[in-house]
Amino acid sequence: MADESSGQEKTEAPTSRRLQEARKKGDVAKSMEVPSAAVLLAGLLALYAASGFIMERLGMLLRHYLGNLHSIDLTPGNMPMITRESMLHTGLIVAPVMLAIFVVALAANYAQVGVLFTTEKIAPKLDKIDPIQGFARLFSKQTLANVVKSVAKLFIVAYVAYAEIRKALPGILPLMDQEPIAILGFMSRIAFWIFLKAALIIAILAAIDYAFQRWQFMEKMKMTKQEIKDEAKQTEGDPHVKGRIRSIQMQMARQRMMAEVPKADVIITNPTRLAIALRYDALSMTAPTVLAKGAGFMAQKIREVAAEHGIPLVEDKPLAQALYKSVGLNETIPANLFQAVAEVLAYVYNLKKKGA
Fold first, then answer.
1. What's phi and psi for 68, nearest 5 deg?
2. Mean pLDDT of 231-248
3. Which end of the chain is more exposed for a tag (fewer CB within 10 A), N or C?
4. pLDDT in tens, 193-238
5. Can you tell me the distance from the alpha carbon of 20 to that of 331, in angstroms, rounded to the nearest whole number?
6. Cβ atoms < 10 Å from Cβ of 49
7. What does the alpha-carbon distance between residue 102 and residue 35 come to, in Å, rounded to a whole number?
8. Contact status, residue 341 vs residue 334, Cβ threshold 8 Å
9. With helix as H, strand as E and coil as C, how does the chain read?
10. Strand order in the sheet with 313-315
11. How far is CA 139 from CA 70, 148, 150, 209, 210, in A?
12. Omega within 30 of 0 (cis) for the link into 271
């Protein structure tokens, strides 16, 4: 379970990307026992449901040929035609059972892996024809598990057959006085129950095997912590690069914001921790707008730019805090701050008139 490249243990659950990549290569959780059990059970039930139809049609076909032996010319020339005709009729008779088996086989595989088409598994590889690796696979754990499953199924079927036959022994002796059709019916019932019980047990074993195969597959797909980090870098980008990009974006945004400060009418301060630059043009604006705001170092830079351009600074701690928290850049102030901001702007306009 250790990762050979980094020495780390594979303790993390596989990511969706790892599972998707494995799926593209044909690596999925799949049990070969599920389709086998489904086909056996479906074929048995379909045969049981259609047994009356099949027996009737086969009897009609047999009566047709046996009843018309005098008119059928059995020569080497027409034997192929008669054989093809009889095989065609027989195929049509058993077609419903074969169709049911085909549909169930597709459904059993689809339920496990869905729609999957890949050439990865059938692509020629040198290790597949390597005799040493082939010999190693012959004695691998997977081969041993398959042998154990096959032997277990054989013993189960044998035991079920033995139990059913033993239970039916008292009814076998009276068959000596019965007609062949009755004997055939008795044997059919015994065979049906043998196959049905065996199929149900094999279906249970198939469900257990699928659960085991899925667990084994997920264990194989587990990842190390380093693999998780590497995949995150590939899918989301290097965190250091992303941090650098965010830093550059923030710096550019700050530069654009500082370029707007000279257009402000007033700077509301806290007095040193916060600074908010406001502008109001009665002809083009419905309400005063925040051009720039900052805290700490940015507040100091805003005050410096304001001092360079002669923009007045007004200290109002409650108003500065409210504007900094509730108003974003290039947004107009909310209605509940109109009165306070109007008083500040009126004070600034009076200062400008006196200065003029």
1. -120, 25
2. 71
3. C
4. 888 888 888 888 888 888 888 888 888 888 888 888 877 777 665 5
5. 46
6. 13
7. 10
8. no
9. CECCCCCCECCECCCHHHHHHHHHCCCCCCCCHHHHHHHHHHHHHHHHHCHHHHHHHHHHHHHHHHHCCCCCCCCCCCHHHHHHHHHHHHHHHHHHHHHHHHHHHHHHHHHHHCCCCCCCCCCCCHHHHCHHHHHHHHCCHHHHHHHHHHHHHHHHHHHHHHHHHHHHHHHCHHHHHCCHHHHHHHHHHHHHHHHHHHHHHHHHHHHHHHHHHHHHHHHHHCECHHHHHHHHHHHHCCHHHHHHHHHHHHHHHHHHHHHHHHHCCEEEECCCCEEEEEECCCCCCCCCEEEEEEECHHHHHHHHHHHHCCCCEEECHHHHHHHHHHCCCCCECCHHHHHHHHHHHHHHHHHHHHHC
10. 289-295, 274-279, 266-269, 313-315
11. 62, 13, 15, 20, 22
12. yes
Query: Smallest Cα–Cα separation from 114: which of 43, 222, 19, 36?
Result: 19
d(CA 152, CA 136): 24
- Which neighbouring-strand residues pair with 2? 9
CA angle 256, 262, 265 (to 5 degrees): 120
Is residue 80 a contact partner of residue 242, using CB atoms and an 8 Å limit?
no
Length of the chain, in residues: 356
Nearest-angstrom CA–CA distance, 332 and 345: 14
